[in-house]
Amino acid sequence: MTEPAAALPEVCVCYILSDTPTNGYRVLLGTKKKGLGLGKLVGPGGKLEPGETAAQAAVREVFEEAGLRINEADLIPLGRIRYEFPHRTAWSQVSWVFATRSWQGDVVESDELLLDWVPVADIPFERMWDDAKFWLPGVLADPDSGVPVDRRFVFAPDLATVVASDQDEDVDAGGGSRIRPAARA
Ligand SMILES: Nc1ncnc2c1[nH]c(=O)n2[C@H]1C[C@H](O)[C@@H](COP(=O)(O)OP(=O)(O)OP(=O)(O)O)O1
Question: Measured from the CB, is residue 131 less than 6 Å from ligand 1?
Fold first, then answer.
């Protein structure tokens, strides 16, 4: 895998976790209604605005996209994911990942996301960005581990498939991908 390129645009994502295990723990996800990733299942999140920290952006985006008030102090920082699109560089970003179990208010559908609570054990990863299946199950399995995720993924010319990652064992000698999805939470 080649060296990472220079700094990328920063975005954030926040996984809001139900704090009761009724029918298993659930996470609030939404189907994107517009823009980049239209139709994909994502956590509330988006671009950092000038002068904003990633945590401040997560608080703002959760309110804008899901109508929920969360406190910065309740955010669990989970690390960062870097995804690179060599064939569409404008899509390359670094995403700061958070979770929280605390919120105020009721979920409000926004013009960005069609929202639903999804059992953590039953997330349809095939509906998410392709990188998610490699890191999200581990992160959601133990958000309190204190071990931050720090991964890098490279997408193929099809702009949909991960072909390489920072973990060398994921990629075979012929340049093809041997990446295996992480175990589900
Ligand atoms: N490849 C990949 N993997 C994981 N997550 C993502 C991607 N690409 C992405 O865009 N995303 C995530 C990052 C963000 O959480 C959202 C995209 O946010 P976006 O809607 O572009 O940002 P906003 O600031 O909310 O949008 P605008 O209001 O500026 O249109 O998906």
Answer: yes
> 7 CA distance to ligand 1 centroid (A)?
17
Residue 74 predicted with pLDDT over 90: yes
**Cα separation, 155 vs 93, whole angstroms:** 12
Spacing, Cα 174 to ligand 1 middle (Å):
31
Q: Could you identify the residue written with the tokens 């910065």?
A: 72
Query: Distance between CA 32 and CA 165 in Å, rounded?
Result: 25
Residue 63 token pair: 């309110």
Domain count, the chain: 1
- Whole-number mean pLDDT of the chain? 90
Which domain covers residue 54, as residue numbers?
10-170
Given a cut of 70, is residue 5 above it in pLDDT?
no
Q: Is the CB of 35 under 6 A from ligand 1?
A: yes
**Binding site membership of 176 for ligand 1 (Cβ less than 6 Å):** no
Q: Is the pLDDT of residue 173 over 50?
A: no
Phi, psi of 40, rounded to the nearest 5 degrees: -80, 155
Q: How far is the CA of 89 from the centre of ligand 1 (A)?
A: 14
Q: Tell me what ipTM this predicted complex has.
A: 0.91
Q: Does 178 reside within a domain?
A: no
Task: Write the single-letter amino acid at 168.
Answer: D
